[in-house]
Each structure stands twice: as structure tokens, then as C-alpha cells.
Amino acid sequence: MTIRLLRMSVATALLIMLAACSDDNDDSVTEVPEEPEMRTFEVSVFNLSANQPLSPIAVIASDGGMLWHTGEAASDGLEALAEGGDNSVLIGADSTLGSTSGDAPLGAGESEMLTLSLEAGSETSISVASMLVNTNDAFSGITGVDLTTWAVGETKTYLPAVYDAGTEENTEMAGTIPGPADGGEGVSEGREALDAVTMHSGVVTADDGLPDSVLDSSHRFANPVMKIIISRVE
Question: Where is the signal peptide (predicted)?
Fold first, then answer.
């Protein structure tokens, strides 16, 4: 009986030692996920107007979508941008993959550069948009520019048109324009009868016979009012 117990004790000890050795020699390696490859773009915006500050520039990358289509109704986000210069709704959309924004309005003759970094490997388009703040609902920019195949060092220049969001009547009256020419309200209730994005025909101003207009000849504009240069730098 004593010999049998001794043999069992020795066998148990050997099993424990083997198990311990097995744990000590565990060569398994925890895989560290690779960091995603990034693409970095610089977006330079120039205000070419005489007296039309541009609301804080919105640079938005999305999964191939467009922020507006001419002839179609503006989204709520575009309405907020075009009437009040508020780009937060557009930036916060579900389709947004990445974004950046200017911190303040861009004055006439001024320029700024914004940087946007995105993960590589997915279909990506970029939109740049801003309101002409001395108007009722004019905006300018580009939308749906495909960045997927851009190589490092590639640069393109855009001279976008000025659009009418079609969400507010172009009365130019006091209280309806958010820019320094008036300091009026931003987004107004309701939409004008057209309710579609179109090319903007320009402002009339009091100097050209619209007596209730708070604008003068310095606020007139012709296409383009904005120059955009996009470069892939990484």
C-alpha cells in the first residue's frame, strides 16, 4: 500500500512538472493590429470677392455622396449653411468619414489652408462649402470630388460657381442677412416657392434700384468668388 501511494505521488508530481514546463515554454505571440494607412490632403481656400466674407469653410469627406445637386431641394444641413453659415449639420451627417472646419469667417482677399487625414482603401469623395454671408442664401463650393485614386503630390485647382440654395427669398432686407452688412437672422422658417438649388444670379443692392436692400455695390459678386486648391501630401 505504501509503495503504491509513493508511485502515485511521484506520477502526480511528474505531471505537475510537465504542465509547468509546458506553460513556461508557451511561444504564442499576440498579434498587434497594423495601423491603418492614412492619406492626408491640404485644402487651400481663397476668397476672391470684393466684400463678401465667407462663413467658416467646411471640408467634408464622405463615402461617395454629394452635398447638393442643382435642380433639387437643399438638405436641412445645406439650408443651415446657406442661410446662416452654420456648417455643423453637414459635418455631423452619418455619411461623413472625416471633416475639418475653419475657425472664423474668411474675409475678402484672405486665404486659409485646412488639413484633412483619412484612412486609405475606401471610396472617398470630398466637398468644400461656404456661405456668402452678405446674402440671403448664397453659397459656393465643390461637392463629390473623388479622392480615391489621387497619388501623393497630386494637386488640382477649382473655381466653383455661386449657388442659390433656394431656401430663402432674396429680399436683401434688414434682418434677413447674417453678415456684417446687416447682422440679421440665420436660418429662417419655411422655404421659398422654388425650393431648389440653382445658379445664383447675384445681388441687386440699393445702389441698383432695390430700395429695401441693406446691400450696396461693394457686395456685388461675379463667378467665381472662391478658389480651392487640393493637394495630397501623404
Answer: 1-22
User: Can you read off the three cell numbers belonging to residue 26?
Assistant: 508557451
Cell of 218: 461693394
Which domains are assigned to the chain? 38-232 (2.60.40)
| Sign of the four-CA dihedral 55, 47, 108, 75 | negative
**Cβ 234 vs Cβ 152: under 8 Å:** yes
Backbone angles phi, psi at 130, to 5 degrees: -160, 150
d(CA 60, CA 229): 15
- Give the count of beta carbons closer than 10 Å to the beta carbon of residue 181: 23
Residue ranges in the chain assigned as alpha helix (H): 2-24, 76-84, 88-91
Q: What is the pTM of this model?
A: 0.83
Per-residue pLDDT in tens (0 to 9) along the chain, 234 residues? 444 434 445 445 544 554 555 455 555 667 766 777 899 999 999 999 999 999 999 999 998 789 999 999 999 999 999 999 999 999 999 999 999 999 999 999 999 999 999 988 778 999 999 999 999 999 999 999 999 999 999 999 999 999 999 999 999 999 999 999 999 877 777 777 689 999 999 999 999 999 999 999 999 999 999 999 999 999
